[in-house]
Fold these 3 entries.
Entry 1:
Amino acid sequence: MTKNILITLFYADGLHGGVKYTAELGSFFHSIGYTVYCVGVITNDVTKDFFKKYNVNLVNIRNFDFNINFDLVWAHHFPIFPYLVRHGLKYKKIINSCISSILHIEKPIFCIENIDLILTLTEKTKQTFIKNYDIPAEKIYVLPNTAPDIFFQHKKSMHKKLSKIAIVSNHVPEELKKAKKLLKSKGISVICYGGKNPVDITPQVLSEYDAVISIGKTVQYCLAMGIPVYNYDHFGGSGYITPENLETELAANFSGRIFFTKKSPEQISEEIIQQYDSVVSKTEKLISIAEQKFKLSVRINKVLSLLSKTKKTKKLKENNKNRLLFDYCEFIINAFAGHKKKKENIFKRLLRHLTAMKF
């Protein structure tokens, strides 16, 4: 019998990290027999078509079918779940996945006793949740960004010479733009993906390059394929990921926010060229580490194993004590769903202020 999983996502309107993560999750769950649905608050047809390639059915929250029974809800962005429950969501188990420790919308759902398992990207976020929200440590599992198995199967054959580099970023800092020019002056081809040139980063795309400059999920992709990856973006960064610095940089999700190290264009270009051969020599060790830490099938199967062992929790229900929470979530969803683009910043500010409330 086919199982159903629902993934919730506030912004399903472009090729950004949350959309990519949802697509990868959906593809995996489809491969193990689930019918996969994603409910988004802000959606568009381009993202709907993108999800189809990953066997994910995207639906706007205003068109959600409450007749479907879900075996599992994988909930991002806390206002969505209480809204769905108020309107009749049918489900068996709920995972609350908090992708970011910075964004207000990524706070844990304010009904901890009704959540089966909480996921965070880093140990630091886990400890923050324990301290700030009194969540039991055993209820939180650290699930770092993962790389789908296909990235491990599509290993890169390294060139002897560094000749092609990709920058993957939605916010390329000025020093990296200047480093790009310096690298080109030395005969190295450099192309940027992201921002005004959005591309689905697949193994086929990355395999064209000898090295990649990026942060976040792209780092895991490169490590899985054995491509040297230079960790740098608008927060700065420490440079090439090696077996020696991998754990340190992972603590901040390869964001550059461990040391906020800013480098000059000259330093960036020199390090990329001069340290390249040394990093290539460590490729096999990096792949082995990545397989243990970031392989999607391994990590999600671990999550499902933990979920199967959790104590049965009471389903979330609206009552007089939590009605303010439900009213608040309803207000947020109605404010955003179907809004005009020009009003987006107003609603974002509203969300930021209201999420400071405690229930």
Entry 2:
Amino acid sequence: MKKSYFLKRLLLIPLTLFGIISLNFIIVQLAPGGPVEQMMSKLENTGGSAISRIGGSASDMTPQPSGESSYRGTQGLREELRKELEKQFGFDKPALERFLLMINNYLRFDFGKSFYQDKTVISLIVEKLPVSISLGVFSTLLIYLISIPLGIRKAVQKGSRFDTVSSWALTISYAVPAFLLAIFLIIVFAGGRYFNLFPLRGLISDNWDMLSWPQKITDYLWHLVLPVLSLAVGGIASLTFLTQNAFLDELGKAYCRTAKAKGVSAKNILYGHIFRNAMLIVIAGFPSMLISMLFTGSVLIEVIFSLDGLGLLGFEAVQNRDYPVVFGTLYLFALIGLILNVLNDFVYTLVDPRIHFEKRLQ
């Protein structure tokens, strides 16, 4: 039965992807200021008369009354330029035709080329991916490595001074935005005012090629310290409280009281009975946290620390209406998220074989 459940989940992925892409395509069609308008505006504002210099000659220039264009062919050239840009960007076709062509290409993982960069969307994603993976993976690992033991200790010592002080510290850290913490860390530790312990920009030093392999690894990790800390602090607070509450809930159940009455040690109860049940809810948050660290939470951090990753790529693509990049990254992000959710359910069944999902799809 578990095989049939996961098969159904996998078969739902294409339908879900189609729905996500369709909805966003409709929203984009309704949004004002597309790539053609953006490019027209840039050309018109370049030098004050960029369009009037396209294809014109000195004989076309004649004095005009105030408020009129000084170039007789400006309007005609503007319309010709618009049609040329629409053809270049593929907007000379009806919306439905463009949508069907995009879906056909996406089935073959052909996302086209960026409107503003002479690169394919795939090459841009591959180029930026290592930066985002570095931030996402290391931030998520740091969050789980700190939060799980800290949450367990807070649950065991509930009501103690340690629990109270750590709760206040975690609440304050959770309330501080990641970008504000990043600026604070730069001021204090990256040569802003006090200490110059960590590098300010990028993931590698200028002399990277001259370093040995151990030095390269050290240099790479050293550049990650401040960005990863900025991303992880908020996640540490939320996951710690989640872990604490999960363990407290299990500690109050009848099987724990029965185990204590039989003389089972507290350590065996905690790690032999409670741990597996309490960790289910913690494991459930792993895919969403990883996706958040990879694709959404790191946008401002990438900007502040000059890290050229996927978050910055997607943000700039939306600003510039670079639709191939917008839809290409959206498609891949959604696909990865859906696959991770299926993987999350699979991990559930490994942790606790008693779990059955079949009724969820009925």
Entry 3:
Amino acid sequence: MAEAETIPAESEALTRTLATVAELGLGENLIELETQGFSTVKGVLSESQIARAKAAILARAERDAGHSIDPDTATAEDCEGMTYIPYMLYEDEVFEEILMAREPLALITYLLGESCLLSSMGCHFRGPGGMHLPLHSDNGNGIPAPFTSFSQVANVNYALTPYTREAGALAMVPGSHKLARQPKPDESDLGDNANPNAVSMNIDPGDAVIWHGNSWHGSFVRTLPGVRMNLAVYFNRQYIQTQERHGTTVPEEVLARHANNPRFLHLLAGKQPYGWQKEGPDYSKFALMPRGLYD
């Protein structure tokens, strides 16, 4: 009886998801996700969104560093290697817009279901020099190998500056999601003995790379002056602990702006039933919990 009740809800969710994928013309991207474990969607962000996101990230980076940084001419003395800048969602309204970008969110929904949560939103701010980011799977948050064939976490990486290998681009290993494990030490290098299967994602500002949580990825050392900026928007299934805390901590003005947008509120744990204190559980939210891969 329980199985019979699950199947229709799961089928309806998958039908909705595939209809959105078709409406947005993302059929080829779906094939790429299944076969190589990642896919690029071109021109997701507008020039205005790129400029606003870069300005907000640079302001945070300069505040954290305690000095100004020229994003075009910065040297290793200004900002060497990669620094992760976390919790960007509430820095500027543009990040709320980016969270809801339709094409990447449709592919994330296919990977993680309609009930998925925003885990974190931050920037890998990379100046010249420093170390490469070794290849790894985002299943590093305690998920044991062998990994499940379905994605439990997934990522959207937006380029805000041009990506080339010399510019410190994102690296991906096609087909690695099917290996269902983390790379071994001799498979994770992106330096002098770089994994020969790693490809540089040479993409333009505004493009987005979406990948299955099993996929191996990292980033190359930047050898050019200036800064590589991205926006990494990381998601997980509802039963996994998010990296960042949202839920009851979402600012009131953000909630007000999206009061009529249930998907936005759900991404920020609006229907997450767990995490109660003395007040006990909200049983109405248990009825909203997912019952399959797509709802």
